[in-house]
Write a structure and sequence with these properties.
By secondary structure, this protein is mainly α. The protein has two domains: about 45 residues, no CATH class; about 110 residues, Arc Repressor Mutant, subunit A (Orthogonal Bundle), CATH 1.10.10. Helix content is about 50%, strand content about 5%. It has a two-stranded antiparallel ribbon. The chain is elongated.
Length: about 180
């Protein structure tokens, strides 16, 4: 195969030409896809970087929904131990699977706290123990709302530390609001 060599001027000219062509074709393709979607044509299939259709993810964990339901049902801050005990009794999980259930609940709580921003942990200043609360129960200032602050004080024996509201993530799945 013969090797073609271009001067610097020709290279720059070719790069500019093909960049313009790419832009033109991209906008044309976007227009065609828009018209097809309006006409009810086939939807664009999702693909991975390598061009294959992505595999479906595994089954969703039940524990995230369970934590949110329990907090709403009890309507007061709960410790992780309370959540785990409720899960063991409600789902009739044998004591032999306590470690597995605990790990699953802690993992789901972590995801609800760090990814979805639906729960936060609140504790007393200088103390290790924390309670899980819904983000909705925390005011803009970072303090617990009065009805939940009273319950927190009765459980923990003191006033709750303020939550850093700037550190709470925004839910990346806005259609998944509860």
């Amino acid at each position: 195969m013969t090797k073609i060599e271009f001067s610097a001027k020709e290279t720059a000219s070719l790069q500019a030409h093909f960049a313009r062509e790419k832009e033109r074709l991209t906008t044309e393709l976007a227009h065609v896809e828009l018209i097809l979607s309006k006409l009810g044509g086939p939807a664009k299939k999702a693909t991975t970087k390598s061009g294959h259709t992505p595999k479906k993810r595994g089954p969703k964990s039940i524990w995230g929904a369970f934590i949110l339901k329990r907090l709403r049902a009890r309507n007061h801050p709960m410790s992780y131990d309370e959540l785990i005990a409720d899960a063991m009794s409600i789902h009739k999980i044998p004591e032999a699977r306590l470690k597995s259930a605990k790990a699953s609940i802690l993992n789901s709580a972590f995801r609800l706290r760090t990814v979805h921003g639906k729960i936060v942990t609140v504790g007393r200043p200088g103390k290790k123990d924390k309670l899980v609360v819904l983000t909705k129960w925390v005011e803009e200032s970072g303090a617990l709302k009065p009805e939940h602050a009273k319950t927190f004080k009765s459980i923990m024996g003191g006033k709750a530390a303020r939550v850093d509201m700037a550190g709470i993530p925004v839910n990346p799945y806005p259609d998944d609001e509860d």
